[in-house]
Amino acid sequence: MSFAGVVLATVPATAGEATIVHPEQWPQGESPLPPDPAIEARVRALLMKMSVEDKVGQMIQADIKYVTPDDVREYRLGSVLAGGNSKPPGQPYPIATQWQALSDAFYRASMDTSRGGLAIPVLFGIDAVHGHNNLVGSTLFPQNSALGATRDPQLIHDIGEVTAQELRASGISWTFAPTLTVPQDVRWGRSYEGYSQNPALVAQYAAAVVGGLEGKPGTSQFLDAGHVIATAKHFLGDGGTHDGKDQGDAQISEATLRDIHAAGYPPAIKAGVQVVMVSFSSWNGVKMAGNKSLITGVLKERMGFDGIVLGDWNAHGQVPGCTNEDCAAAYNAGLDMLEAPDSWKGIYKNTLAEVKRGVIPMSRIDDAVTRILRVKMRLGMFEAGLPSANALATRSAEVVGSPSHRAVARRAVRESLVLLKNNHGVLPIDPRKHVLVAGDGADNIPKQNGGWTLTWQGTGQTNANFPGATSIWAGLQAQVKAAGGSAELSVEGDYKQKPDVAIVVFGEDPYAEFQGDRANLAYHPGNDHDLDLIRKLRGQGVPVVAVFLTGRPLWVNREINAADAFVVAWLPGSEGEGIADVLLRAGDGRIAHDFHGKLAYAWPRSAVQVPVAAIAKGEHPQFPYDFGLTYAASAKTGKLPEDPGLVLSSEQAGVYFTRGKPSQDVVVRLTGADGVAMNVAAAPAATPDGSLHFSALDYKAQEDARSLSWSGTGVGAASVELVAPAPLDVERETNGDVLLVTTLRVDALSAGDTSTLGIGCGAGCNAQVPVGEQLSTLPKGQWLRVGIPLKCFRDAGANMSRIDRPFEWSSHSGAQIAITDVSLGTVADRTLSCPPHGDKP
Fold this sequence. Notes:
Radius of gyration: 27 Å
Largest sheet: 9 strands, mixed
Structural class: alpha/beta
Number of strands: 34
Distance between the termini: 52 Å
Shape: globular
Number of helices: 26
Oligomer: single chain
């Protein structure tokens, strides 16, 4: 591939040298912060006073969902984090003062020596990846794939500064950002976290965003009360995995790993980044969390990184020979702190034992703790006091979502928009006309933000959860009205008055991490609703501007052909009015803002084309890297090819039963109380012994649900199962707190009901979770999404890497339920608790 005259080749690994690392061939560097004698002396003095228990506690990070301030007080933990779905207790949508209160509680616990130990302030980290996205009312910026299109390092720096200020206003001083991945296959569900496929652009942005978050090393602003600790992630090669699989294997040469995927790390280190997070993924079969050559040999020794090396969410458990609760190999490879959200007690106990046995050398422990204490002292934590006492925290209402902060985000929206088509001069739009705004993304703030927004997946919210934010519709309406025109909103494109122009806003629904992995790049395969909407309006003689919300390039050639103009708005964040700024003329007819954005990722020609790989083979993408039209330099876009290169199907991974029917190749099996099993081809059906009846019923459409009724006098249970065509590997989902979600209606379950929901994993391998007692309290006759954490089944003994029956419901006579959908997800109306399986201290 070629970027600005530099040709890079994605070279596969050579047999026999697949995992050999040559540190001397990597960029050499050093910390921009020369050793501070005062800090180093304080660290050594404190280290000498610390017990082994104190040291091990510092090397563990627990999640606030699974740890309390009292646990921090007892175990002397060095850090806590708030994962994507973790919030202050009882506050699903927290404001700044609620985060402050929780942060204060953990801080007080860490400084309390009443049970022994030393007063060492606890670090509190959070994923603030497009602004402080876990804080209600915050300024939310476009996701990183959008920011790559701006080609504006100063803007990236400013975004870092705003994010740091809003974090400090909430009492938090550490973000797990920036992501310095260089995605090469946008089928990967985390592609929108990467600025670009171009390593040079990522390297340029790395220094800018770290400088914004932390301040400039060597100045009084560095890690002062208005800045926070930054985290460069994920080291290394997460954007180069085979087929774009999240947490997968980067099957590439050392040169490719170094020149493409490591490009952001030397500039981030030079800018003073204090934490590097190690990737879930592997390099040529070796898990990064266990790769000593890269972590210690390259990152620490060759690149000169002297801060904290942090593991990702239970990623150490994927290292061969390790579990989530025991992984000496990760510490010995060079990780200084393990992110053990729900496994921290086991890690504490086992690590302590391994240190005492010499499995982990004391020299490794002392190096890790030295790095942790050094970062805490650089941040001034020992002198800062309560997080809520920070000057920004004391006036959080003025800081969070302030007009000046939102102005930066609105500017980022304007600069990130990429114009792919503008035929017939439909853009810019005269705001004095009658404008129709349509599509399900038009007035949908959660959709325009995407994942990592208030929740991990960014799902389950409404506009009301975003006070101060502006939807795309609201931004357009305000400017049209101010200019003397009129605007009409209709999601389905119906209108009261024929419009002069229609703006159709549509695109990807929110997702995060592996939940966004795709088999191909077709947009909504098998669902042409958005395409039909554009065609309907065009067929009525209405010019159409398509505004596409997406985290990555997708195959939308048909939609581009159908529209007069096509704008890629990416995932723009909270300031939807930035889109109106560019699409509309000013009230006096001027063009106030031209299109600025250029593609930071090449755009696919078909649904099966992976542009970076295609370019390497001499093939042309539909739109190349750096493409983007402007008003000043217009060009007509011709008709694009409409062959997707595959059969478009609406089948989705993780969906087992939908609208009352099994997904493709999934089989419904009934087993009677007598143990006799039968596959169901159609409803109605019943087991031969009559203990279980299966029939169709209407939920939202004709026969889109199934009723299950247990009867008979036998003492045994009867069950319904969904049988997968091949074993499923859901270990990633289990580790990520994903739920098995069943949309169901309870018609008859009595108190004391013994129904169970389980999964099967081959002969002699299954796990059942009692659900009868919890479900019997649900309102009868009401449809609800009921979720069970996959980890409940893992804890009950299931092998989550080979699930062949993703759903097994077992009940006795008298039970009656209805089911319409069964899938993996993260949003439920009622999440059931796991049965106790013993504490693991």
